[in-house]
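Dear Dr. V.,

Thank you for agreeing to look over these. As mentioned in my earlier message, I'm a first-year student in the group and I'm still getting used to reading structure tokens, so any feedback on how I've presented them would be very welcome. I ran two proteins. I've put each sequence directly above its structure. The first is here:
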Amino acid sequence: MASSTTRVALANSARKLPKGAKLVGAADPKQEIEISVRLRAKRADDEQVMALGAQPPRERQYLSRAEFGAAMGADPADVAKIDDFAHRHDLNVKSVHLASRTVKLTGTVKAMSAAFGVKLNKVRYEGATHRMRKGSVQIPAELAGIVVGVHGLDNRPVAQPHFRRKLPQKGAAARAAQGGSFSVDQIAQLYNFPGGETGAGQCIAIIELNDIDQKGHPTGAGYKTSDLRTFFKRAGIPMPKIAPASVDGGANKPGHSEADGEVVLDIEVAGAIAPGARIVVYFAPNTTNGFIDAVKAAVHDTARKPSVISISWGGPEDQEGSQQFVDGLNEAIRDAAAMGVTVCVASGDNGSADMGADWDGKPHADFPASSPFALACGGTNLKAPNGHINEVVWNGGPQGGAGGGGVSVVFPRPQYQAQAHVPKSPTHHNGRGVPDVAGDADPATGYEIFLNGVGTTIGGTSAVAPLMAGLIARINEATTKKFGKTVGFINPLIYAANTQGVFRDITVGNNDITGDLHGMYKAGPGWDACSGLGVPNGEALQNLLSA
């Protein structure tokens, strides 16, 4: 291809430095870094995937992973242009993956900066130093429309884990709160999960993000096998097959990060619900390319073929955030749906604010739960004296956390929510309402897990994503036996009018965590932006999806 010197800004690639960030200096020009270049698809697929989701699973024609690669993968001619670009700019092509439309390039900070017309700086933010850029990525004019994302030049963290530890309480309050926690198995029974299946023959993918050092190497987040062994032994549940998978240099690194609680919670909850399933934990750095590449690695894993993915990480939607990151991750979740893979995502633990100390005073939906192709999982407070269920929206205030939920400012309202009475978004548009479903998430009524050698209680919508993933694995075992297909993208079906009795409606409470948003959002009859459609009755959901 003839080399043109005309450069254009890559659409949606603009970034800003976060408020409170301090410039330390230029990034080390000799440092070797790896980035992911995302290429265009052969055709737009949103409408086909939405139409697929409206069909009963029995009637669906999913693409196999091989068929997806052929129909929707990157064009080799486009890849050849990236090869030329890399050659001209002293970059190396590390890998090409046609199905996920991803080319990974390596090179020095100096070469990357020149190739993409960016200035990379060391920036101190929230106690850590990251490599950041501002403004847009520049690409040669002949690559416009071919390259749709360049991820990883900037390695600031993009997501938080959505788990909450139970708060220590003193005196009478502590005595009143005792016995408030549940074993995973007790929750499965209270929610009437189908009893005959264990998820046999299914693979559950769990996405986990590592803390990284200044060189981009993982420093923490992981699980100790000894904790898992003890948990399953105590629970009297056979331990499922569990394997860690490394993406973009990610690794199982327990003992150095608070996020160990996330990793262990996810595995223990999913594994207790579906001990017959294989669990693969995809570790990647907590960066834009790490998060996207981890989900893509699971979606396109031709060896293990996950049929359900659990994601308990996310962050508030931000109109000034990275649109190409949102596009890239949403595209990965949509591609999962096309192949019959369900993606369960935690909706957040900071209520409708979805932010902590640095809150801007506005409501926010959490992404990637706000992807219209994700099953967004919200939170409740569950009490069940003598098996009598009393369940309300989780809202323990700023200290105790609250279930995430709201209306997207990024994604328009999907057709399946047309009759759900979703309120207008904070920008006064028709947006995607979050969550879709809910389950026990209040740490005060949380899950009994085993972490760092001790039994402990953890909550958060983080627990609800693997809980639902385990349920979907059980249902997939049943539907695969019955008609040879997984249930995949279920949102259009669960919002349809014939789902009475599939969900227990949560009608009490709100997720206004600080009390400053006039009770936004309140629970009520039908769908709401704090508990979604409600808590699934597992057996009834299985009947709906296997009809």
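The second protein is here, in the same arrangement:
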Amino acid sequence: MSKRIILLTIVSGLIVVAIAVGVGLYTYTNIQAGNSYENAQKELNRYITMNDWYNFEIHNMEQSILSFYTNENRSVIGLAEIDVTTGYLGSVTKQVTPDQPFDFVVLEDGEIEYIAVHLKERPEDVVYLRLNGDDVSKDFLVNDPENEGYAMTYVIETTKRSDGAWYLETLDANKQVIHSSELTE
């Protein structure tokens, strides 16, 4: 055989090997990323079960998983976050106030803040939640009036609030305030 054919065969073989290695690494990376979410979910479920909590709702975020939970008699609510890459789990709980129309718990994660809300009084009338403070007001659609059902829980993801008085308000379809409560940790 000529040197040209041997060289062409070797180069073609190296190209095939390089492509195979690239596909293998890509597949392995994607499987690992999928496993990290799966492992984080298992760890979060273990934490919730081990502490006799019950999930209201679970959210898959970009790099973490959030769980909004309560205890059996609903006297405590909590919010937990597990990082899917590091496995770090942080949580916060709060005693509920029986005579309040809604309860909330706040979890800070760096510059991000999660506010989990449990609507207890007339949740079917609540269409929006409003975060109000420091000349800032932001509305979050909780229950779309076009849909038949309604949610009793909602998790707000927002940037960390500045110091000062902040209020969480429930609003009806006309954006009239139903209830208001000062946000305190």
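From my reading of the second output: The mean pLDDT is 83. The two ends are 80 Å apart (CA to CA). Does that match how you would interpret it?

Kind regards,
E.
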